[in-house]
Specification:
Elements (H helix, E strand, L loop, with lengths): L1 H18 L3 E16 L6 E13 L4 E15 L4 E18 L2 E17 L2 E2 L7 E12 L4 E10 L10 E13 L1
Antiparallel strand pairs: 1-2, 1-9, 2-3, 3-4, 4-5, 5-6, 5-7, 7-8, 8-9
Length: 178
C-alpha cells in the first residue's frame, strides 16, 4: 500500500512540477453504475459521485489530473441493496488525441466511509481501502465544461469476511473548470 501511495504522490508531484501556467481546478458530478465481481452474485446498482479535480498540463497533448471524489457505490441482489460510500482519489494521466478529446488512465485508491446492506451496518465486512485501475475518455464541450466516461476496475479484494470480491464501476460525469 505504501508503494501505491508513494507512486500517486510522485505522479502528482511530477504534474505540479511540470505544469507551469497551464493549471486548472474544477468540480465534477455524475452518475455511476457499480457492481461487485468475483465471488459475488450481484447486479448493478445506480449511484452518484461528486468532487473536485486539478488538471496540470505538462505539454500540449499530456496532462495529469488528480481528483478527490465522494462516490456512492455498491450492488444489489434479490433481497436488498449493498450501499458503500467511498472517498476516491484517482490520479489520471490524460492524453489529448484531438482538440478537446482526451483518453485517460490511472490508479485509484478508495477509502471506505460506510457500508450497509439494507438498514444493517456491514462496514466491518469490508476492507477499509480499495485499489483500482481507471480507464476513460473525456471531451471538452466548451472551454470550461467537460464530459467524461470512466471505467474503474477493482484490483483488490474488498471483502473482509472471505471470498474474492472486487469493485467494478462505470461513471458518466460533467466537470466545470474554473
Amino acid at each position: 500500500m505504501k508503494k501505491i501511495i508513494l507512486s500517486l504522490v510522485a505522479i502528482a508531484a511530477f504534474g505540479v512540477a511540470n505544469a507551469q501556467e497551464d493549471m486548472k481546478f474544477g468540480a465534477k458530478a455524475g452518475i455511476n453504475m457499480s457492481n461487485f465481481t468475483g465471488d459475488a452474485d450481484t447486479d448493478s446498482k445506480i449511484g452518484f459521485q461528486v468532487g473536485a479535480f486539478a488538471e496540470f498540463k505538462v505539454s500540449e497533448k499530456f496532462a495529469v489530473q488528480p481528483e478527490i471524489l465522494f462516490s456512492a457505490l455498491g450492488a444489489k441482489d434479490d433481497s436488498d441493496n449493498y450501499n458503500s460510500n467511498y472517498i476516491l482519489v484517482p490520479v489520471m494521466a490524460k492524453y489529448y488525441v484531438a482538440e478537446g478529446f482526451s483518453l485517460e488512465a490511472g490508479p485509484q485508491i478508495g477509502f471506505l466511509m460506510s457500508a450497509k446492506y439494507g438498514d444493517t451496518d456491514i462496514k466491518d465486512a469490508y476492507k477499509s481501502t480499495d485499489f483500482a485501475l481507471n480507464l476513460g475518455a473525456g471531451y471538452d464541450v466548451a472551454e470550461n465544461i467537460n464530459i467524461g466516461l470512466r471505467y474503474s476496475l477493482g484490483l483488490s479484494n474488498v471483502s473482509d469476511i472471505g471470498g474474492d470480491v472486487k469493485t467494478s464501476n462505470i461513471a458518466l460525469a460533467v466537470g466545470y473548470k474554473f
